[in-house]
Amino acid sequence: MEPWLLRWIELQHLCESPPESRLLWLLCFYIGPEIEAQLPLGRYRVDFAIPSEHIIIEVDGAAYHSSEEQTIYDTKRDIWLESGGWHVLHFSARMVMDAPERIIDRIAEAKHENMG
Fold first, then answer.
1. Domain spanning 3-115: which CATH class is it, in words?
2. How many other CB atoms are there within 10 angstroms of residue 105's CB atom?
């Protein structure tokens, strides 16, 4: 069995929504088995990470991420993560479901930016 597929099988139970499940499949397929899911970083937990590239990928569902309180929390968390050298990417649940190729392209751009 392919390493990316084994990783997807290993991590899929950690997904908390259908968009997260779909994104995990895409990340494992296109990025590879180095994907981490629900990774604890300090006092926070991120949806997905590529630790070797210092890239974090977050899926923002409208119901959960639309409150002012959650927006403030997310902003503080992103500032803390970015101060630690992480590149934080946010994608809406709708984008995950409707335009996954744009997500993969943006992650590739972030990987390239990290090299430069």
1. alpha beta
2. 11
